[in-house]
Write a structure and sequence with these properties.
Distance between the termini: 151 Å
Number of helices: 5
Order of helices and strands: HHHHH
Mean pLDDT: 76
Strand content: under 5%
Low-confidence stretches: 1-15
Number of strands: 0
Structural class: mainly alpha
Helix content: over 70%
Largest sheet: none
Length: about 120
């Protein structure tokens, strides 16, 4: 017991080496692992913050990656009301042309009867 007390009071760090019992060599593997782990976590946090700042500044550029380009080979689905307007316009033009033909036909008949 006296030998342990003498070793503990012997100098700075003598207590630690006596407590470990490996002849003065302090095991730093736990400390090194802790330092490496905290360094890795610090790097991950800094990289995440950097990506967040980059994403906020370049939001449009990033969103452009995920948007699909417009399909040129497939025409978009026609609007129902636009197609109905075109059909109605075509019907009106047909009726107008029929009316013009009938008017011109009736005028020629009338002219022939009056002559």
């Amino acid at each position: 017991m006296a030998a342990a007390a003498a070793a503990g009071a012997g100098g700075a760090g003598g207590g630690a080496s006596a407590a470990l019992g490996d002849g003065g060599a302090i095991d730093y593997s736990v400390h090194e692992a802790w330092n490496e782990a905290t360094n890795v976590y610090l790097l991950v946090v800094l990289a995440s913050l950097a990506l967040l700042v980059y994403a906020r500044r370049n939001k449009r550029r990033i969103m452009r990656i995920f948007t699909l380009p417009p399909a040129a080979e497939t025409p978009p689905e026609p609007n129902f009301y636009d197609s109905m307007k075109k059909i109605r316009l075509r019907q009106q033009l047909e009726m107008y042309s029929i009316g013009v033909m009938m008017r011109s036909f009736s005028e020629t008949e009338v002219d022939d009867e009056w002559r």
